Amino acid sequence: MLIDTHCHFNHERFATDLDVCLTRARQAGVLQMIVVGYDLTSSEHAVALAEQHQGTLFAAVAIHPHDARHWTPEAEERLTALAMHPCTVAIGEIGLDFHYDFSPREDQYRAFRDQLQMAHRLHRPVIIHCREAYPETLAILEQVSVAQIGGVMHCWAGTVEEAQRAATLGLKLGFGGTLTFKNAEAIRAAARTVPPDTLLVETDAPYLAPMPHRGQRNEPAYVPLIAQKLAELRGLHFEDIAALTTRNAQTLFPGLAGASSSESSNSPSASR
Ligand SMILES: [Zn+2]
Fold first, then answer.
1. Which domain holds residue 103?
2. 52 falls within a domain
């Protein structure tokens, strides 16, 4: 069994064939997926999907750094309610993105810190988005003692030294399709060297499809391609990486472990 710890089934690119994608995921052994929100609408959508597919889909809710300029007391109130929903297993994705800078950095810092506080208050782990802001992001996570709530650096793209620092802070590292890209030696070096209990797999679907699907729409059924690459890098069997990353995901997101996987095959499929 594999768990996709980061996908966006709440994205419009899955609006018409979500059920087909879910069937393909199940056939590929990907039995649980966390649907990650990035604004209020997508967070609500994530919770609704998790309600419809209990035991298979789980929600994470948050305002992404791209949308940090929309972080208001009203947004915080709505997000708090969504975060307390029983299908919600994490606050995310939150963080800093200095590559695009779609929101002013001041707003990004404010939304990031406030949502970390919310996660502490509600005892929820965090899913971190970080682009060209590793030193700043890791410094904040250290300040707020992220180890107390747990967190994952999703779609890891930092240096080996930054990966070690993240692991020291008690963070997990999410490896996705980029692990299979030709020019991703630094990512592979991090994947080879971090402690085994930090390893998670994810797709970030519909983005960043692994080889040989690069450039196409990504989907959770491709997680085995990422797990296979990770197994090669670590010198382990595929089954061992599957068991290890599943255990790590269940440790970080206790809401997953509580769900019976037999529920997934019995849950009614959505009518649309
Ligand atoms: Zn994402």
1. 2-262
2. yes
Q: How far is the CA of 250 from the centre of ligand 1 (A)?
A: 19
Q: Are 128 and 151 in contact (CB under 8 A)?
A: yes
**Is residue 271 assigned to a domain?**
no
**267 assigned to some structural domain:** no
Residue-by-residue pLDDT tens, the chain, 272 positions: 999 999 999 999 999 999 999 999 999 999 999 999 999 999 999 999 999 999 999 999 999 999 999 999 999 999 999 999 999 999 999 999 999 999 999 999 999 999 999 999 999 999 999 999 999 999 999 999 999 999 999 999 999 999 999 999 999 999 999 999 999 999 999 999 999 999 999 999 999 999 999 999 999 999 999 999 999 999 999 999 999 999 999 999 999 986 654 444 444 444 44
pTM: 0.94
**Cα 176 to averaged position of ligand 1 atoms, centre (Å):** 11
Cis peptide before 206 (omega within 30 of 0): yes
